[in-house]
Specification:
single chain; 347 residues; alpha/beta; eight-stranded parallel beta barrel; three-stranded antiparallel sheet; 39% helix; 16% strand
Length: 347
């Protein structure tokens, strides 16, 4: 109820302004010890994925907290994991504003943010100041490349970020699927993907030796893939022994929103209109992988049944973002309770 009232006010504002105000408000509530008022208790549902012990399978997707400014406030809402970023080696402003658009009639969001962030060093300052990781919370750090880095040098940016965040991350997510950085999705193609994954795995091995611990790495892919591309990606993930895959990022398609206000804005579409496409890719990839590595399902989860469908399609964990904007913290507890009940029933 509290979030519902707050959302009515926020939705009268420009989407990016509302986002900043909402996150700042969460920080204030957390500082006052009141962030718990926004959230119901979350059902425990412990499970192990990628060698990590998650208290429940409901995670926050990357993009909501790009710089790790709000980790502790978000942790009070019951997420089983929090993924921050996407972060790049150097700070960058991202694309010109306006660049974030709601489509309330379809419970969708279009963004063309462009990896706006304060750079990896600033993110690490925030991570090290947060209590959540110190208490054993699962913190994913999502890494990308700077817009000014040529695509044929992209691996250098990913390697810089991986080396810097490795010791502070529970897992590292490699984002090669945002539609808002020019040519980035080219890295999903055969030779480019092989080369990038080989370099990342070599660096991961070096860092594991250096720090005396293994930090898993997951690849985040796009929903705009055909069957041949999905099979090729599955083969590459297996070949390079990647620890997990996040399915999916936003879509360039406009199915169901093309005639709605903001529906023709450029950028990536998320929320309810993404659900069917992202879940179909998830199911196809799960079939191709045959259980050889875990999948994190994200894209269009607006209710508990959506999350259950991701699990049925082959996901081990789920993440929410746009659904959190539309539904608020109650979505976290609703999904966690449903998935916990399903797991108990299947034991």
């Amino acid at each position: 109820m509290l979030y519902s009232l707050f959302r009515k006010f926020l939705f009268t504002l420009d989407a990016e302004t509302a986002h900043g105000l909402g996150m700042h408000g969460l920080s204030l509530l957390n500082a006052a010890g009141l962030a718990g008022l926004l959230a119901k208790p979350v059902a425990p549902c412990p499970l192990e994925v990628m060698g990590l012990k998650f208290p429940n399978p409901v995670g926050l997707a990357a993009g909501l907290d790009k710089n790790g400014d709000y980790i502790d406030g978000l942790a009070r809402l019951g997420f089983g994991s929090i993924e921050i970023g996407t972060v790049t080696p150097r700070p960058q402003d991202g694309n010109p504003k306006p660049r974030l658009f709601r489509i309330p009639q379809a419970q969708g969001i279009i963004n063309r943010m462009g990896f706006n962030n304060a750079g990896v060093d600033r993110l690490l300052q925030n991570v090290r100041a947060a209590e959540f990781p110190k208490r054993g919370g699962i913190l994913g750090i999502n890494i990308g490349k700077n817009a000014t880095t040529p695509i044929d040098q992209a691996a250098e940016d990913y390697l810089i970020c991986l080396e810097k965040v490795y010791n502070d991350a529970s897992y590292v997510a490699v984002n090669i699927s945002s539609p808002n950085t020019k040519n980035l999705r080219e890295l999903q193609k055969d030779e480019a993907l092989d080369d990038l994954l080989a370099q990342l795995k070599a660096k991961q091995a070096q860092l594991a030796d250096h720090y005396g611990k293994y930090v898993p790495m997951a690849l985040k892919i796009a929903p705009d893939l055909d069957a041949t591309q999905i099979t090729a990606i599955a083969d590459a993930l297996r070949r390079h022994r990647i620890d997990g895959v996040i399915v999916t990022n936003t879509t360039l398609a406009r199915d169901g929103v093309e005639n709605l206000p903001n529906g023709q804005e450029t950028g990536g579409l998320s929320g309810a209109p993404l659900f069917q496409k992202s879940t179909a890719v998830l199911k196809s990839l799960a079939t191709a992988l045959a259980g050889e590595l875990p999948i994190i399902g994200v894209g269009g989860i607006l209710q508990a049944s959506d999350a259950a469908a991701k699990i049925d399609a082959g996901a081990s964990l789920v993440q929410i973002y746009s659904g959190f904007i539309y539904r608020g913290p109650e979505l976290v507890s609703e999904v966690a309770a449903t998935l916990a009940a399903r797991m108990q029933k299947n034991v």
